[in-house]
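Why run this: before we spend reagent on co-expression, it is cheaper to look at a predicted model of the complex and decide which construct boundaries make sense. The entries below are exactly what would go into the expression plan.
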Amino acid sequence: MPPLLSFENVTKHYREPGGQTLRVLDRVSFELEAGDSAGVFGLRRSGKTTLLRVAAGIERADSGTVRLDGHDVATMSEAAHARLLRDKIGLAPVGWHATRGQRVVDFVSLPLLSNDTSFHDANVIARHALERVGATSRADARVAELSPGERTRVSIARALARGPVVLLVDEPSVTPSPGERDEIHSLLRSFAHDPGLTVVVASEDIAAIRTARRAMTISDGQLRVSGQRPGRLIPFPDGRSGTEQTS
Amino acid sequence: MGAPQRQRGGARAKRPDIGKGSARALRGVVLALICEHSGHGYDLAARCNHRLGPAWQVTAKDMYPVLNQLLGLGLVRREERGRTVVFHAEPAAFEALGNWHDGKVRKEPLRSDIRARLATVAEGDVDGALHMLEEYESLLLDLLEAADDALPPSVATWGALLVRVNHTGTDAYLHAELAWVADTRRRFLEFARAAR
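The model came back. Tokens follow.
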């Protein structure tokens, strides 16, 4: 059975204001089976958010292959690609914007409305997703009233609302409250044990990484996976990471 | 209860103590766990790992030298129950534990194999240094993956709070080490680029 999500030598560059290109993902390879869970540890600007955005199909890789459920996403039509991502992947980003006065349940149900779901049904599904993340009591609150931890829960609820098989969570540990952080980690741990969900958590917080069964690190766009001990000879650095001149 | 430990040093009785040496911290924890309730080697190893976190990697095999030291210090006694040996706290154990907790926290030297190796890499052997870092990062990843399911979901009890703060301490250590690996790797790569 093929892995549910796989990266093979995926590379991604960004153009910086100074004209340089920054290699954000550098030949990244990994595989995740259905029901697997992985924590990706990385410091700021290490490439972890880009990794999730490429996995979610929000950004395309410059080179390499991303496969989701056996499909090479680069060779799919735009419509098939969008449908696959919509149905299969939920991304809980680190920062999101909503109208401050918007109700939480409306924010969570919004992606469902673009999916020909009725307003009533979307509302019911959104409330169920909020229940799943322990945020039922905040369903009718305004987005502006949420604590940082509640925002993380709501973000996860929105990612879960469409019933994805892959959940990508970007930096869930933004709250300064240790108790709130513990609760979010417990929630992520419960997802990691859900056989119907494949979870990737990217964070700078080790405790968040520990909620997953597998651990990876990313630095300078290079991903390292446990159990892959290098041989004595590794390629000598020839500009494989960091900034490069584009001239 | 066993006979009181005969103290060295003549008439002046020595305060009960958990002893010195590199295993002092583990000895203190094992004694504290026995004071909470008696147990056998495997049980104590499991309780140690639960309390301290998986990074301590305590095995039942590690327990017996520690328990023998505690027996020698007169702080615990053993009881054979069929094929199992259960260890109980002696009255002096509680005082020794109190003395350990009240005493100064010892400063332990920050020595590690990876630091020692990196301090002695042959000049210009960037490849060798990077290899060492990769190896070390793999070990850290293994520690990250060590089962942590025993972590209580909340810290509503004192026991859960103690477990949580120890696990958090381990996490902080792993974070610092992984950040150091990333920074050191970058330094070697920048050095290699500048040297070309």
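The longest helix of chain B spans residues 158-195. Chain B touches chain A at residues 126-127, 130-131, 134-135, 137-138, 140-142, 144-145, 148-149, 151, 153-155, 164, 167-168, 171-172, 174-175, 178-179, 181-182, 185-186, 189-190, 192-193 (CB under 8 Å). Bring this page to Monday's planning discussion.
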